[in-house]
Amino acid sequence: MKKPYWLKQSYLKYKINNILFSFTQIFISKNKNGKRVLITELDGIGDIIVKQKLVDLIAEKHGKENVVLLATYGTELLEFMGYKCEVFTKNVHYNFFKLINLFKKLCEYDIGILYSLEFSSEDKLDFLNKLRLKEIYAFKGGIIDNWKGKNVNLVEKEGTKVLDILSNYARKFINPNVKKNQIIPRLNVETFDGSYIAVGIGSSDKNKIAFPKKLAEFLETITKEYPEMKFHILGYGKNDLEYFKKIESCFSKKENLVCFVNKLDLVGTMHQIAHAKLYIGFDSGLYNIAYALKKKQICMVSINRGHDFFHEDENIRFVYKELDSRAETITDSLGYNSEISSISTSIFKENFDFLFEESRKINTFIN
Q1: pLDDT by residue (tens digit) across 155-191?
Q2: Which of 38, 80, 97, 221 could be a cystine partner for 349, CB 3.0 to 4.6 Å?
Q3: Domain spans of the chain?
Q4: CATH fold for domain 12-182
């Protein structure tokens, strides 16, 4: 018999911490004037990149010096952009001491306005309700919907693409004249076409990526024509390192693989993409970084997943499995996407050749 959610250890721990926090926070000095702005971005790296221009618009309205960001991932990128950040570490809302220390830090900023940029505010944000907030702005459909006695402003998630949703948020809460093209993220980093190809191998969900042997096959099609081409492999964490090792084990020209997994922070990874000839990867945070850098890229995706983050951009070639082909049955897939793993090498190479030639034309024109 399945245990009720209210008897699960994680739920009980959260509730106990919440009770302790609610009592203890009474004795913490709160803001006096509430002049500063808190922006919460507790989603993944890709979301942070895509929402970058929205953050900039908020900073323009209130003054960048008055803005503090609360994020779980990508804080080094936000700091690179010149923002003050506090880190919401994973599961901090289950740890009373960490949560109360974070709350104390936020109280020191004299915060009066909250912009929640999560597409759905979760229970872990509920502790912010104890701040003396004068104004709150958020998407409808989360824990903030239930906050009472405050000036809570909510907006529906309208639109089929993520930029439509974000531009609607901006028009509602920041500037009614904001246009969609003003929300397109752009990272202020020098880019050029180097001599290598950057390859991103990670994603927040293994079901967004092909199994390692298939990616190795895609890269092999490039080395057949360009035998000296180097591939700078980008990723982070134990899973990405294991993924790289599987690629390496079946790749014929191992000397062409340069592993940067776990060797760079996010800013260093961004520069690797910025200085690559082009980028190859899946629907991930790095895909969104390449998009914000206007870097030519191949993104291998599934036609059966949501397309709200599939950006309309001439620099991106989305590669799908051919509609009339069957998905491969992969016995060692371990959660990898069988549909993406069924993309033919010929389709991949066709898209690579197109981007490679486009890049060559641009460089010839510039030179």
Answers
A1: 999 888 899 999 999 999 999 999 999 999 999 999 9
A2: 221
A3: 12-182, 196-366
A4: Rossmann fold (3.40.50)
